[in-house]
Design a protein that fits this description.
Structural class: alpha+beta
Strand content: 25-35%
CATH topology: Aminopeptidase
Number of strands: 7
Largest sheet: 7 strands, mixed
Number of helices: 4
Strand order of the largest sheet: 1-2-3-4-5-7-6
CATH superfamily: Gcn5-related N-acetyltransferase (GNAT)
Distance between the termini: 25 Å
Number of domains: 1
Radius of gyration: 14 Å
CATH architecture: 3-Layer(aba) Sandwich
Length: about 150
């Protein structure tokens, strides 16, 4: 089941995201950052109540949002959870009246299958790069920018 994250999910989200951050697949997120942006997050919860996937839709500007912090526990990958989380974010963007959504990713094939197109990072507004300065790879980012216009 996918639902909006609640306060009780923060520690599980933190653990999951930082597991992938240690591998260099995502930016690390502090507990403070997660609490500050709780409303951005959605979780995929198993019947047992365990969070096995997470994603966030971050509003950047009046016409642009970012899908970020997409992670699914390794043992659940390949089961469609990531796709469903992205679709949840896209649906939320449409509900908010945002028709352009981008992501920065190391998995372009995954996002291409969902309808995203690769773009040059320079086409994204400078506001997008606020998180990048905290990244160990800045300014030599090797993530791929992808966008969907709905």
């Amino acid at each position: 089941m996918i639902r909006k994250a609640t306060i009780k999910d923060i520690k599980e989200i933190h653990t999951l995201l930082n597991r992938f951050a240690e591998k260099g697949a995502l930016l690390p997120r502090s507990l403070s950052d997660l609490y500050d942006h709780l409303r951005d997050y959605a979780v995929f919860e198993e019947e047992s109540g365990t969070v096995v996937g997470v994603s966030a839709l971050h509003i950047c500007w009046e016409d642009l949002a970012e899908i970020r912090s997409l992670a699914v526990k390794e043992e659940f990958q390949g089961s469609g959870i990531g796709r469903r989380l992205v679709e949840f974010c896209l649906s939320e963007a449409l509900t908010l009246g945002i028709y352009k959504v981008f992501t920065l990713t190391y998995e372009p094939g995954f996002f291409e299958r969902l309808g995203f197109k690769q773009v040059d990072k320079s086409l994204l507004p400078h506001k997008v790069w606020a998180d990048c300065v905290r990244c160990s790879k800045f300014p030599d980012c090797d993530e791929i920018a992808m966008i969907m216009e709905m």
